[in-house]
Specification:
The chain is built from 14 helices and no strands. By secondary structure, it is mainly alpha-helical. The longest helix has 23 residues, at 18-40.
């Protein structure tokens, strides 16, 4: 394995060091997959997009001129791809905040409140929570979604995010403000995680979610994935001390960081090396 800082690895890769190139891919694939998953919802679509983005990075490495940090350039390549890629399965469903409100009403009408379930049902509750938050991001258009995720989930500053998205800082601030406002208005009105007085509690919609096929307990989309933080970091007392926008952002940041699929690097090597994943990666 090549060693050194990411910037050093990039320079080595540009000079033809194949081991360094593979290590660059390993070090950036997590953040790309995390962004793609939040943009596209479905893990399989996020995997495909991550593969496409990584291939662009590998084959266009000479396009990195050092005008920014390498990770910032990676964010820019990934964001541009996710802004322009074809619509994937979840986006084609055309969900909206109104649709989610209707589903919540149906779920609450069909089920009685009960204590948080244990065992297998606890995983269903986690699946519902993750699926709901991921789905709410789809209610934003792609530019708003990207602005929100880059800033509130990944902690990228406004000016840097504006450069990543190739817009003016003022245009970015307006885009981010709209995304924040739309998510805040919906979640503060409905979500029991932010306000216990709200009727929508994840456990209460389990019967409806299973009955309608929203959640398949035998084939969950998210809880089956490997992740780096499955412990719930939400602290109700700490949330109460935050303003409304910060509370909503904390809810999205509390989601696990899912690991990209094993074998992703091998798949990229297979594509770029004419079907031979055993050969070192070459830009």
């Amino acid at each position: 394995m090549a060693e050194g800082s990411l910037e050093q690895l990039v320079e080595q890769a540009r000079e033809g060091n194949r081991a360094a190139l593979e290590e660059v891919v390993r070090q950036v694939q997590d953040r790309i997959y995390g962004l793609a998953l939040r943009m596209l919802y479905h893990p399989a679509d996020a995997e495909d997009a991550t593969q496409e983005i990584l291939i662009k990075i590998v084959t266009r490495l000479d396009g990195f001129r050092g005008e920014s940090a390498f990770t910032t350039w990676v964010w820019r390549v990934a964001s541009n791809h996710l802004l322009t890629t074809r619509k994937r399965r979840a986006e084609r469903a055309a969900v909206s905040f109104d649709y989610y409100a209707e589903q919540i009403e149906k779920g609450l009408a069909a089920s009685e409140p009960h204590q948080p379930p244990e065992g297998e049902q606890a995983l269903i509750v986690e699946e519902i929570r993750t699926s709901c938050l991921q789905g709410l991001l789809l209610c934003l258009d792609r530019p708003q979604r990207l602005a929100y995720v880059l800033t509130e989930v990944f902690g990228i500053g406004g000016d840097q995010a504006a450069w990543i998205l190739d817009v003016s800082p003022e245009a970015f601030r307006q885009r981010l403000s709209r995304a924040r406002r739309r998510l805040r208005d919906f979640l503060l009105k409905h979500c029991g995680l932010l306000d216990p007085a709200n009727p929508c509690q994840c456990a209460r919609v389990v019967p409806m979610a299973v009955e309608t096929g929203w959640i398949d307990p035998d084939r969950p989309l998210f809880t089956r994935l490997s992740c780096r933080a499955r412990q719930d970091p939400l602290d109700p007392e700490r949330l109460a001390d935050l303003d409304e926008l910060a509370r909503v952002a904390e809810l999205f940041r509390s989601q696990p960081d899912y690991d990209p699929p094993e074998g992703l690097l091998g798949d990229i090597k297979r594509i770029l090396n004419g079907g031979d994943p055993s050969r070192p990666l070459d830009a």
